[in-house]
Design a protein that fits this description.
heterodimer; A: mainly alpha; MetI-like fold; 76% helix; B: two-stranded antiparallel ribbon
Chain lengths: 271, 302
C-alpha cells in the first residue's frame, strides 16, 4: 500500500516537473510583460519586482497594434466562416456517401509545403491587383481551414445516427433540409470546436501573411517581428505584445482541448 | 448474396438514376479547393519551366527543365537540403522518445493528471512566431534566463546558442521540440489508453520486469501510434520555416537555412519566381516521398 502510494507521488513529481518546464516559457513571458526595462536588464534575472503596466500601455497606445489585431480577426473569422460554409456540406456528403477523392486531397494539402501554393497565388493575386487585400489572405488561408473543417466534421457527422435522417427523408424532407434541420443542430458542438480550431490555425499562420499582406493588412504574427529591433531592446513591449497575441489562442484552445490533436493532424500547415 | 428483386421499390429506383446529391453538396468546396490549391499547383509546374521574374521588364521565358538542372549546381540549395534532413533527423530522434516518455508518465495515475494533460496543449497552440521571439529573449547569451539557470547548475560559460555555428540547428530543434513534443505525447497517451490490458496482466503474472514489459509489449504495440506521430512530425520538420525565420532568419550566415526558408527567399525576396517554383516542387516531392516511405515501414518488419 505505502509502496504504491510512494510510487504515485514520485510519478506526480516527475509529471508535474515536466509540465512546469513546458509551461515555464509562458510564465516567463507574462512575467516579463510586467517588468520595467531596468528589471528586464537585470542579471541575475529578478523574479520579484514591482509590476508595471507600461509595456501594455505602450503596445496599446500604438494604433497600429489594434489595427493588426483587427486584421488578424477579420482574416481568421473570414477563413473560418467560409471554411465552415463550404466544408460542412462537403463533410456531410463525405460521411454519408463515402467519396474518397476528398480524402486524397486532404492528405495532399497536409503534405504540400505552403510555399508551393504561395508562389503561384502571389503571382496570380499580383496580376489581379489583390495582393495586400483581405480577400487574398482569406482565400489563401482556406488552403488549410477548409481541409481541417472537412476532416473534423466528417467525424462529427458520422457519429449522428443515420436512422433520424432516414425518417426525415421518408417524411418528405429534402437532403438540404436534413442537413440544415438535423445535421447542423445535432453537431453544433462539433461545428463550434471545428470553428475554433480553424480560427486558431488561421490566427497563428505566419508565412501566408508574410507574403500576401501589406502594411495595412498585416496580421499579428508578422507584425510582432516589428518589436525585435536591431538597435533597441524593447523586450518588455515584445513580451506584452506576445502575451496579447497568444492569450486569446490559449483560452480558445482550452475550450476545445479534447479535439486539439485531431485538428492538428489535419490543419497545421506551417510552411 | 443480395437479391435485388426483394429490395424496396425506392432503392431500385435510386439504382437506375445516378445520384448526384453528394457531388452537389461537395461542389462548392471542390471548386474552392481547385481554385486555391489545384490551379496554383498546375501554375507552379508551369512557372518552374520558365525564367520568371515579377519586377523586371522581361516577360517569362520558357527554358524547359533548366531550372531543375541548375539545382544540382546550387551549393546553397544543396546545403539547405542536407541541413533540412539534419533538422528532421534531430527532431524525430528527440520528439519521439521524449513524447513517448511523457505519455508513459501521464498514463500513470497521480493527483492532478487531467490538469497536467490539459496544460500539455499550450506550447503547440501558441502562435509560433510570437513564441519564437520569446525564446530568442530567453536564450539571450548575456541576459537570458537560460544562461542564469545553467549558471545555477555550474555551467558558467554557456554557448551563444543561436549565434553559435555548431549549435544553431540543435537550438532551433530544441525550440521546435518544446512546441511539438507535447503533441507526440498526446498522440501516445491516446494510443496507450487504447492498448488491451490482458497482455500486461499476463506478463505481470509471469514475472516480467518493467523493462521487459516495455521492450516486448508496450513498444511493439505502440509502433503504429508512433509511426503516425512520426509521420506528422516528419511532414512538418521537412517544411520547417516559421521559427527559423523569426529566430535567426537563416543565420548566422546561412547556417540555419532550411530548404523552405531558402525557397521563400529565392522566390519572393530575390524574385527568381521560376527557379523558386522548381525548388518548391522538389520540396513537395521530398515531403511526399518521405511520408510514403514511412507509411511503408509499417508493413514488412512485422
Amino acid at each position: 500500500m505505502t509502496r504504491t502510494r510512494r510510487r504515485q507521488w514520485l510519478t506526480a513529481a516527475a509529471a508535474w516537473s515536466v509540465t512546469f518546464a513546458l509551461v515555464a516559457p509562458f510564465l516567463w513571458m507574462v512575467m516579463g510583460s510586467f517588468k520595467t526595462t531596468v528589471d528586464f536588464l537585470a542579471f541575475p534575472p529578478v523574479f520579484v519586482f514591482a509590476p508595471t503596466l507600461d509595456n501594455y500601455r505602450q503596445v496599446l497606445a500604438d494604433n497600429s497594434f489594434l489595427g493588426y489585431t483587427l486584421n488578424s480577426t477579420i482574416v481568421a473569422a473570414g477563413a473560418t466562416g467560409v471554411g465552415l460554409l463550404l466544408g460542412v456540406p462537403a463533410a456531410y456528403a463525405l460521411a454519408r456517401w463515402r467519396r474518397t477523392a476528398i480524402g486524397v486531397v486532404l492528405l495532399m494539402a497536409r503534405m504540400a509545403p505552403g510555399i508551393a501554393f504561395l508562389i503561384p497565388l502571389f503571382v496570380m493575386f499580383l496580376q489581379l491587383q489583390l495582393v495586400g487585400s483581405y480577400l487574398s489572405l482569406i482565400a489563401s488561408h482556406l488552403i488549410f481551414t477548409l481541409p481541417l473543417t472537412v476532416w473534423m466534421m466528417v467525424g462529427f457527422i458520422e457519429a449522428v445516427p443515420v436512422e433520424i435522417e432516414k425518417a426525415a427523408l421518408i417524411d418528405g424532407c429534402s437532403v438540404l433540409g436534413v442537413l440544415l434541420r438535423i445535421i447542423v443542430p445535432l453537431t453544433v458542438q462539433g461545428i463550434a470546436a471545428t470553428g475554433i480550431l480553424a480560427f486558431i490555425a488561421s490566427w497563428n499562420n505566419f508565412l501566408f501573411a508574410l507574403v500576401l499582406a501589406n502594411d495595412n493588412t498585416k496580421t499579428l504574427p508578422v507584425a510582432v517581428l516589428g518589436y525585435i529591433g536591431y538597435n533597441s531592446i524593447q523586450w518588455g513591449t515584445l513580451m506584452a505584445a506576445a502575451t496579447l497575441i497568444t492569450l486569446p489562442v490559449l483560452v480558445l484552445a482550452f475550450c476545445v482541448q479534447r479535439y486539439i490533436v485531431r485538428g492538428l493532424v489535419a490543419g497545421a500547415v506551417t510552411g | 448474396m443480395a437479391d435485388l428483386s426483394v429490395a424496396p421499390a425506392h432503392v431500385v429506383a435510386r439504382r437506375r438514376r445516378r445520384d448526384w446529391t453528394a457531388e452537389l453538396l461537395s461542389l462548392p468546396a471542390l471548386v474552392t479547393i481547385l481554385a486555391v490549391m489545384g490551379f496554383p499547383l498546375i501554375y507552379l509546374c508551369w512557372m518552374s519551366l520558365n525564367r520568371w521574374s515579377m519586377v523586371g521588364f522581361e516577360p517569362p521565358r520558357f527554358i524547359g527543365l533548366r531550372n531543375f538542372a541548375q539545382l544540382g549546381e546550387d551549393g546553397r540549395f544543396l546545403d539547405a537540403l542536407g541541413r533540412t534532413f539534419w533538422f528532421t533527423a534531430l527532431g524525430l530522434a528527440s520528439n519521439l522518445p521524449m513524447g513517448l516518455g511523457i505519455a508513459l508518465l501521464m498514463h500513470e495515475r497521480f493527483p492532478g493528471r487531467s490538469l497536467c494533460r490539459a496544460l500539455l496543449i499550450l506550447p503547440m497552440v501558441a502562435t509560433p512566431a510570437a513564441m519564437g521571439l520569446v525564446w530568442v529573449i530567453m536564450l539571450d547569451p548575456t541576459l537570458g534566463i537560460v544562461r542564469y539557470l545553467l549558471g545555477l547548475i555550474g555551467i558558467a560559460h554557456p554557448p551563444l546558442w543561436l549565434a553559435d555555428p555548431d549549435l544553431v540547428v540543435p537550438t532551433l530543434v530544441a525550440v521546435d521540440a518544446w512546441m511539438w513534443t507535447p503533441m507526440v505525447a498526446l498522440i501516445c497517451i491516446a494510443g496507450l489508453a487504447a492498448l488491451p490490458s490482458e497482455p500486461f496482466e499476463a506478463a505481470l503474472v509471469d514475472g516480467a520486469s518493467a523493462v521487459q514489459r516495455f521492450r516486448y509489449l508496450t513498444l511493439p504495440m505502440m509502433l503504429p501510434t508512433l509511426i503516425v506521430a512520426a509521420m506528422l512530425r516528419l511532414m512538418d520538420l521537412l517544411k520547417l520555416i516559421d521559427i527559423v525565420y523569426v529566430m535567426t532568419g537563416g543565420g548566422p550566415g546561412h547556417l540555419s537555412e532550411t530548404i523552405n526558408l531558402y525557397n521563400y527567399l529565392v522566390a519572393l525576396s530575390y524574385d527568381k519566381i521560376g527557379y523558386g517554383s522548381a525548388v518548391a516542387l522538389v520540396l513537395f516531392a521530398i515531403v511526399m516521398a518521405c511520408t510514403v516511405a514511412l507509411i511503408r515501414m509499417r508493413r514488412p518488419s512485422l
